[in-house]
Amino acid sequence: MKRFVITSIALLLCCLASAQDYGKYYTDLPFELTPPVAPAIPDVSVSLPDFGGVPDGITLCTEAFAKAISALAKQGGGHLIVPPGIWLTGPIILKDHIDLHLEKGAMVLMSPDRKLFLKEEGKVRPGITASKRSDVSITGEGIIDGNGEWWRAVKRGKVSDVEWKDYHRMGGIDTEDGKLWYPFDLKHQENIAADYKTQERMRTHLVRFSDCRRVLVSGVTIQNSPKFHLVPQRCQDVAIIGVTVRCPWNAQNGDGIDLMHSRDVLVADCSVDVGDDGICLKAGGGPKAAEQGATERILIRGNKVFHAHGGFVIGSEFSAGIRDVAVLDNTFSGTDTGLRFKSAPGRGGVTSRIRIRNVWMSDIRDQAIVFQTNYVNVPAGEKGVTGEGSQFLPEFCDIEVDGLTCRDARIGISANGTQEMIHDIVLRNCTIFWTKKASDLSSPGLLDLSGVRLESW
Question: Which residues are catalytic?
Answer without folding.
Answer: 276, 309
